Task: structure prediction
Amino acid sequence: MKQKFSKEWKSSVQPRKQRKYRYNAPLHIRHKFLSAHLASNLRERFKRRSLPLRKGDDVEVMRGSDKGLKGSVDRIDLKKAKVYIDSIKVKKVDGSEVHRPIDPSNLRIVDIKTDDKMRLKVLKRKENVSEKEMVKISKKKKEHEKKRESK
Result:
């Protein structure tokens, strides 16, 4: 793995190669790394498990010392792959307060910001696909039940 980044890179068991993939990934791929799970009501509504975070989304911290706190996403740092929430701050030695960087894997999206047309388009696209998949899944279930009954 001599080159800095390869889009064709499949996977490796070696942590050093996984780290290198994440650190050298371009920003449009890093954006996908900044995804968080959806709350159960949003999961049912949008028929998906997770979404990339955007500024303005309301999130809840699931892990760490700030567990249980809620707030809205204030800033997203693609270079560091961290999220900054408006209600979670840390006091510095000089007395000033700064936002604490949080890993997106420790967050759950409680409410999404739907101002962006592209984001809505992505959500609707997934809904249409999932409806087609649901039909396929229900057909497979029926076939499986018929096979069980015939035995």
